[in-house]
Amino acid sequence: MPGQTPSQTVGPFFAYGLTPEHYGRSHLADGRIAGPEVPGEHIVITGRVLDGEGAAVPDAMLELWQADAKGRFAHPLGGGEADFHGFGRVGTDDEGRFRFETVKPGRLAAPEGGLQAPHVGLIVTARGLLGHLFTRLYFADEAAANAEDPVLARVPKARRGTLIAARCEAPGGPVYRLDIHLQGERETVFFDV
Q1: 41: pLDDT strictly greater than 70
Q2: To bridge 31 with a disulfide, which of 36, 70, 100, 114 should be the other Cys (CB 3.0-4.6 Å)?
Q3: Are 135 and 179 in contact (CB under 8 A)?
Q4: DSSP string spanning 53-117?
Q5: CA–CA separation, 23 vs 34, rounded Å?
Q6: pLDDT in tens, 141-183
Q7: CB of 68 within 8 A of CB of 14?
Q8: Residue 5 falls within a domain, yes or no?
Q9: What is the pTM of this model?
């Protein structure tokens, strides 16, 4: 019986092309999404990726995409800030930690009308996953906006906390922390796309 082939498993080789800094090569995208020239509240988003037993996942990759501080995407038709691309990619370290430097996104229009709460979209890729996991990160200090968000409203109330990052003040500015649990009792809510 033949063994697994690259088409059947993500394997360790995906990181070489997507997070090459782990291998001494220059990066294609990184965790610095917004430099000081970009308007808005500058923040850090951090956390850990953990497996079902709470152990660190040291070789996961996270991609983040978001609107700018005014709720606009970096797109020719979106009208976003010229110096803001709204996309970042990082690999986790040996402790499963990740970090993004960005601006807090603004509210944006919901497809069915109304407004979505400020949030960032995350894609998680890791060994053992045959596909990407899609989730969102919301901000704990946006309780009123979170209560109106149509996507968050579809998540069972008891599970919403898995998507809400806690804010703490740090010398360099606000830091939002959210750990991503791939399985288990505290599993993060992931969305079908």
Answers
A1: yes
A2: 100
A3: no
A4: TS-B-TT-EEEEEE--TTS--SSTTTT--TT---EEEEE--TT-EEEEEEE----EE-TTSSEEP
A5: 25
A6: 999 999 999 999 999 999 999 999 999 999 989 999 999 999 9
A7: no
A8: no
A9: 0.84
DSSP β-bridge partners for residue 124: 62, 133
Q: How far apart are the first and last CA of the chain?
A: 34
**Between 180 and 193, where is the model more confident?**
180
Contact 168, 35 (CB under 8 A): no
The CATH number covering residue 139 comes to 2.60.130.10
CA distances from 165 to 49, 53, 184 (A): 14, 21, 19
Domain that holds residue 95: 14-181
> Is residue 189 in a domain?
no
Q: 122: helix, coil or strand?
A: strand
Residue 186 lies in a domain: no
Which residue bears the tokens 């596909």? 131
User: pLDDT at position 186, please?
Assistant: 94
Count of domains observed in the chain? 1
List the structure tokens of 114: 């109304």
**Beta-bridge partners for 72:** none
Please report the sign of the dihedral spanned by the C-alpha atoms of residue 170, residue 172, residue 173, residue 176: negative
* Within-domain flag for 169: yes
